[in-house]
Design a protein that fits this description.
The chain has a domain of 151 residues: Ribonuclease E inhibitor RraA/RraA-like (Glucose Oxidase, domain 1, 3-Layer(bba) Sandwich). Strands 1, 2, 3, 4, 5, 6, 7 and 8 form an 8-stranded mixed β-sheet that branches. It is an alpha/beta fold and 222 residues long. It has 6 helices and 8 strands, in the order H-H-E-E-E-H-E-H-E-E-E-E-H-H. This is RraA-like protein. It holds the Pfam family RraA-like.
Length: 222
């Protein structure tokens, strides 16, 4: 069945598109988040491997897998069919096998058709060539071959915050920003405070870079 996606509009997303993940992290550090919301070990795999100007910005649509013996029931429907336009699909696992992929090419085909801007996988994904042929942005820890079904089930979709990936919890709707530097999560509640800090820092850095290029020392420029 075909679907028609609704154009996604969010002024914060529009504003964030002009900044890098480093700019976002700098602002979050100033707001008291020591690691700047950075998700270590997650890098760009598609459409290129750590290359190019690919950037994703959007609210997180969170998906949590867990081992079959987890007491939580299996999610009754497939999460990929409810991805909203403009979202970043954020998939993680609460334990279980580290070998099985959490995500594959058909998921990206459906996500792209729904208007998602990219997927972030805190674990392995598969079908790398298919992802690249789709031109769909994937950020992940590594690649794999086996699907999740034999050992894992989906236990939560876009309802509960995710803890333990960085110094902040990742709640559904928080802003996820990914580029060649990595992936950063900006809590929705801090977005309006963070954006002016980004603007100020980028302006200051540009002035410093210009002076350093003219011969000024770094110490003098700072």
């Amino acid at each position: 069945m075909s679907t028609t996606t609704t154009p996604f509009k969010d002024p914060i997303v529009e504003a964030l598109r002009q900044y890098t993940t480093c700019d976002v992290a700098d602002a979050l550090v100033k707001l008291g988040i020591p690691d700047g919301g950075f998700l270590p070990g997650i890098t760009m795999w598609s459409p290129q491997r750590q290359d190019g100007d690919t950037k994703i910005v959007g609210p997180a649509y969170t998906v949590v897998y867990a081992p079959h013996d987890d007491p939580r029931p299996k999610w009754p429907s497939h999460y990929i069919d409810a991805v909203p336009a403009g979202a970043v699909v954020f998939v993680t696992s609460a334990g279980g096998s580290a070998s099985n992929a959490l995500y594959g090419g058909l998921m990206s085909t459906r996500a792209k058709a729904s208007g998602a801007v990219g997927s972030v996988i805190n674990g392995r994904f598969r079908d790398l060539q298919e992802q690249r042929e789709l031109g769909y942005p994937i950020f992940a820890r590594d690649v794999g071959t086996a699907p999740p079904g034999p050992v894992l089930k989906v236990v939560d979709v876009n309802s509960a915050p995710i803890e333990g990936l960085c110094s902040i919890e990742i709640a559904p709707g928080d802003y996820v920003i990914g580029d060649v530097n990595g992936v950063v999560v900006l809590p929705r509640a801090l977005a309006e405070k963070a954006l002016p800090l980004m603007e100020k820092q980028v302006e200051a850095d540009s002035k410093m870079a210009a002076e350093i290029a003219k011969g000024m020392s770094f110490a003098e420029a700072t």
